[in-house]
Specification:
The chain has 84 residues and is an alpha+beta fold. It contains one helix and four strands; from the N terminus they run ββββα.
Length: 84
Amino acid sequence: MIAKELKNSTFIYDEDKKEILITDKNAPHTRSTVVLSRIGMFSLARFILRIAQKGPPKKKKKGEADGQKKLFNRTGRRFSSKRR
């Protein structure tokens, strides 16, 4: 049996059953435990690696996220605040 304790959780690997037990330390009064088989462990590791290999989220261009008004009309001329 291999055990690893972290700040918020505990990981225990049982070599005989080929299972991993993940327990949350922050909620001892509730049953917050996950048991993963070999297939579950493989899927979790694959998911974590895929997320880690993805780059950090790209920053949105200024104005896209804010819903900023368009500065130019369809012809490419700048909108004016004064009406002619």
